[in-house]
Design brief:
250 residues, binds NADP nicotinamide-adenine-dinucleotide phosphate, 9 helices, Rossmann fold, 7 strands
Length: 250
């Protein structure tokens, strides 16, 4: 059985991605083939349980597992589970991530290390460790959920924006390395999307951006899920970052 892995899939954008893929698996869409969802979260078990219940009610079998991207041991244990239980990885959607709503000079060294581990180095470690199983799937897709902040930068958010910018660079490197094995690698860069992550922000962080965007409103998790689903099908989109930001104008 192939795995379709969604990290941080128990709430927010990841949950919308999981729900949309679950519907496609139920509909037996030939693009995805025979596959099982494997969903991770860090520590919020209530969301994980509620996702498990919702998927079972729909008739979808899924593995919902804890994995902390800031811990190499936790990543390695997760990869061991995938290796033991699945023959290949049809898709890896690297969605999990954390934010830090402040400047570089305001974050502690420890906080910066943790943010880099959660958003960048942990995600790279997970992807590199799963690469052999992605190459077996033929075709396979890797999607990174980066951020508009990683594309344009964001005033007052150097720590977060640089971790996401790093993912965009890695997307291009990885795509070049594994194109012969039919692994499609792309990133999606969301603007502000209505999730718990944004609910914690001071509105001053997003109101001017929304005001200056073409659509002048926040996106929904489903807007990102829609684009991610398009990237799971092999085609002519490779090594790129798709902005889903309502038309960022400055
Ligand atoms: N919302 C936005 O406006 C926006 C904009 C641009 C980019 N993004 C990116 O989109 C992704 C999803 O964002 P969201 O708004 O849906 O976030 P969210 O609602 O805060 O959910 C984050 C998910 O990631 C998991 N997670 C967080 N830190 C982790 C870690 N160190 N290891 C493993 N899992 C971890 C969380 O697990 P627990 O539930 O256990 O904590 C949760 O499942 C993130 O990468 C974020 O940076 C979001």
């Amino acid at each position: 059985m192939n795995a379709i892995i969604v990290t941080g899939g128990t709430r927010g954008i990841g949950r919308a991605i999981v729900d949309s893929i679950a519907d496609r698996l139920l509909a037996k869409e030939p693009d995805l083939g025979e596959a099982q969802l494997v969903v991770t979260y860090r520590s919020e078990t209530a969301h994980a349980q509620s996702l498990g219940t919702a998927l079972r009610a729909k008739g979808v079998v899924a593995d919902v597992l804890a994995m902390d991207l800031a811990s190499a041991e936790s990543i390695d244990a997760f990869v061991g589970h995938v290796r033991e239980n699945y023959g290949a990885v049809r898709a890896l959607i690297n969605n999990a991530g954390a934010t830090y709503d402040g400047s570089f000079l305001s974050i502690s060294d420890e906080g910066m290390d943790k943010l880099i581990e959660s958003n960048l180095s942990g995600t790279i470690r997970l992807t590199e460790r799963l690469l052999p199983l992605l190459k077996v799937a033929n075709p396979a897709a890797v999607v990174f959920i980066a951020s508009a902040a990683g594309v344009y930068g964001k005033a007052g958010q150097v720590p977060y924006a640089t971790t996401k910018g790093g993912l965009i660079g890695y997307t291009q490197l990885l795509a070049r390395r594994c194109v012969r094995q039919n692994v499609f690698v792309n990133a999606v860069a969301p603007g502000f999307i209505a999730t718990d992550m944004v609910a914690k922000l001071d509105p001053i962080m997003y109101e001017p951006t929304l005001h200056n965007a073409s659509l002048q409103k926040m996106g929904a998790p489903e807007d990102i899920a829609h684009v991610v689903n398009g990237l799971l099908k092999p085609g002519y989109v490779q090594a790129t970052t798709i902005k889903v930001d309502g038309g960022h104008l400055r």
